[in-house]
Amino acid sequence: MFSIAIDGPAGAGKSTIAKEVAKRLGFIYVDTGAMYRSMALYFLRNGIAASDEEKIGEACKDIDVSLAYENGEQQVLLNGENVNAFIRTEEVSMMTSDTSKYKKVREKLLDLQRNLAKTQNVIMDGRDIGTCVLPDAPLKIYLTASSKERARRRYKEQQERGIECDFEQIEKDIIARDKQDMNRAVAPLKKADDAVVVDASDMTIEEVVRKFMDLYKEKS
Ligand code: C5P
Fold first, then answer.
1. Which helix (DSSP H) or strand (DSSP E) does residue 126 occupy?
2. What backbone torsions phi and psi does residue 61 show, to the nearest 5 degrees?
3. What pLDDT does residue 71 have?
4. How far does residue 164's CA lie from ligand 1's centre (Å)?
């Protein structure tokens, strides 16, 4: 089995690129952020405060996260319900960063993520894939871009989804989320020592996809 591990800050284009590379290579694309988002949605729906680590730990016992694929698109099932349509709001984004720092939340998803990579070729993206989930992945990429560029992309994405948003606020939220993800004690966002850095600030999607394909060819 071949695994490609992709990490990087919010809005760097990880999922767009990973989806396309998965299609070209015939790999399964695994979006681990969506799994953490589904757990955050559960906490929000049940009125559990992000600061209440004990309640969050308890609630983890009542959560079951699984994946299904529809036309190659990953769907996250939260206790059997497809929640893909509810996990992309800014409120869920921030709640996810606020709760994914807890050990119990991370433990809940680790085996699921590792097992996916045991049985099939995967391209998996997140924050701790190269450092923690798949430390032996033969290809690790740290995909980044300037915060302005990342905010611009996120703004466009939200507008296309019909969600009203403010550019300045999106940039502030992205910076706050990265800071929190990079500074947490458990599995912080960090480049793995053996990861290749790709800065996509001035690259088109096709250029980044080609770069990934070249890196894959070198390693496979
Ligand atoms: O990638 P995405 O923006 O969907 O991730 C949402 C949040 O989930 C991140 O800000 C981070 O807090 C958390 N996350 C994580 N570990 C991962 C993937 C995402 O902690 N492997």
1. strand 122-126
2. -65, -25
3. 86
4. 22
pTM: 0.96
CA of 71 to the centre of ligand 1 (A): 24
User: What pLDDT score was predicted for residue 165?
Assistant: 87
- Indicate which residue's Cα is closest to atom 19 of ligand 1: 33
How, if at all, do strands 81-82 and 73-78 pair?
antiparallel
Backbone angles phi, psi at 100, to 5 degrees: -75, -5
Q: Is 149 helix (H, G, I), strand (E, B) or coil?
A: helix
Residue 125 β-bridge partners: 6, 31
pLDDT score recorded for residue 69: 93
Neighbours of 135 (CB within 10 A): 13
Q: Which token pair is 100?
A: 């994914």
User: With a cut of 50, which residues of the chain have pLDDT below it?
Assistant: none
CA distance 180 to 189: 9
ipTM score over 0.85, yes or no: yes
